[in-house]
Write a structure and sequence with these properties.
alpha/beta, single chain
């Protein structure tokens, strides 16, 4: 990608297991992205061993948007396996990994992809913001955790719930890993690329 490109194509991957409560809202937020410098050409959902209506809901979206592809793993083989399946099927070099229980700000993908105008950037991470009420103990702890993640990432970029990578440098991760984000960071750094953190439109 260069700053001269009119549209940088990207592939979005969603790794899902029994996400019938969340997948619709996520897909709708992807459709609502405000884009100018990039283009979402495909949205690949990898459903790993889902036993609920996740695949039915994705199937409904398949009928209205040709960019959506559904890949079904009959058995749940772990998130790393699903990520590798997405990467092996993604057509574009810039691949975006989105956790299936998230909803994206309308500028999230655009800002994330713009980070790759710097050719030294191998992976970029977004800014997760919990929606739990701070009035509950669980909500307070969740907000505290992600606020710390944000503050640390401003100084030392970390990959979290939303990440984008260059597929030509990261095309697979070890399937036995339980920390896929750390693997993405390590591979990018090992190959001499930088990580960057995209805190969102509020901070730009």
């Amino acid at each position: 990608m260069s700053t001269d490109d009119l549209k940088c194509p990207c592939s979005i991957g969603i790794m899902a297991h029994n996400e019938e409560a969340n997948i619709k809202a996520l897909l709708q937020s992807i459709f609502s992205q405000a884009l100018s410098a990039c283009e979402i050409t495909e949205i690949i959902v990898v459903s790993s061993g889902s036993s609920d209506n996740t695949e039915v809901i994705v199937g409904q979206f398949l009928k209205i948007d040709s960019r959506i592809k559904l890949i079904i793993q009959q058995k749940r083989l772990g998130k790393a396996s699903a990520i590798n399946l997405f990467l092996s099927n993604a057509k574009n070099n810039i691949a975006v990994l989105v956790n299936s229980d998230t909803v994206l700000d309308e500028h999230a993908i655009e800002l994330l992809i713009r980070a790759f105008a710097n050719h030294q950037v191998g992976a970029a991470g977004g800014h997760p913001v919990p929606i739990n009420s701070a009035d509950t103990f669980t909500g307070y702890c969740s907000r505290l955790l992600w606020n710390l993640h944000h503050r640390i990432s401003l100084k030392v970029p970390k990959i979290g719930e939303l990440a984008a990578i260059r597929k030509d440098i990261i095309n697979t991760i070890p399937e036995e890993t339980a920390v896929d984000e750390v693997c993405l960071e390590a591979i990018a750094k090992k190959k001499g690329y930088e990580l960057t953190y995209v805190p969102g439109p509020k901070y730009i």
